[in-house]
């Protein structure tokens, strides 16, 4: 008889975030996730006191992976212009090249949910502040840097929505590179 792998809280968290991305907040339910993981509800209760604790863990994972880890990756670039270009290149990708952050769309649609609201607001603020900082580091004064940071983030939100609902409309290959170049040129024009 094969020995069953012992699941961790991280396994449950990843599965919850996947469920959230695929089916919305209602999909973060203990029994279906247990089936997905090939285990019982007992495993869940070993790691979490209730569904809300699992949802909170999934939200924090989303924040860490899709915001803080991306920022760390971008910060490895040597100068502000390279960081801005890399960020836009990464975030304005085609779904075939980079999976769409479907969790973000779900969370945006549920931004008033008591568990989602503080995380979504914090992530939104962090992302806009980070992008604004890139423009400031590239030499833009505070007000124009702020406006450009906001514009870049709202363009990203529109891109994610379009990539999720109509991926065939999102440029890819050489057209995507030209698109990213034009976005960078538009946002960095004096």
Automatic annotation (TrEMBL):
<dbReference type="InterPro" id="IPR050109">
    <property type="entry name" value="HTH-type_TetR-like_transc_reg"/>
</dbReference>
<dbReference type="InterPro" id="IPR036271">
    <property type="entry name" value="Tet_transcr_reg_TetR-rel_C_sf"/>
</dbReference>
<protein>
    <submittedName>
        <fullName>TetR/AcrR family transcriptional regulator</fullName>
    </submittedName>
</protein>
<keyword id="KW-0238">DNA-binding</keyword>
<feature type="domain" description="HTH tetR-type">
    <location>
        <begin position="6"/>
        <end position="66"/>
    </location>
</feature>
<dbReference type="Pfam" id="PF00440">
    <property type="entry name" value="TetR_N"/>
</dbReference>
<dbReference type="InterPro" id="IPR001647">
    <property type="entry name" value="HTH_TetR"/>
</dbReference>
<dbReference type="InterPro" id="IPR009057">
    <property type="entry name" value="Homeodomain-like_sf"/>
</dbReference>
<feature type="DNA-binding region" description="H-T-H motif">
    <location>
        <begin position="29"/>
        <end position="48"/>
    </location>
</feature>
């Amino acid at each position: 008889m094969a020995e069953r792998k012992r699941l961790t809280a991280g396994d449950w968290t990843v599965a919850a975030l996947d469920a959230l991305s695929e089916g919305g907040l209602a999909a973060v339910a203990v029994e279906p996730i247990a089936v997905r993981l090939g285990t019982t509800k007992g495993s869940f209760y070993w790691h979490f006191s209730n569904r809300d604790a699992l949802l909170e863990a999934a939200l924090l994972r989303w924040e860490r992976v899709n915001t803080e880890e991306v920022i760390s990756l971008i910060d490895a670039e040597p100068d502000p212009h390279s960081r801005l270009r890399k960020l836009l290149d990464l975030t304005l990708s085609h779904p075939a090249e980079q999976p769409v952050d479907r969790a973000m769309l779900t969370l945006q649609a549920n931004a008033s949910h008591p568990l989602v609201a503080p995380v979504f607001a914090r992530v939104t603020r962090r992302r806009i502040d980070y992008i604004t900082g890139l423009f400031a580091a590239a030499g833009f004064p505070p007000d124009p840097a702020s406006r450009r940071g906001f514009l870049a983030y709202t363009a990203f939100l529109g891109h994610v929505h379009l990539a999720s609902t109509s991926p065939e409309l999102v440029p890819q290959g050489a057209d995507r590179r030209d698109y990213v170049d034009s976005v960078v040129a538009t946002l960095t024009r004096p």
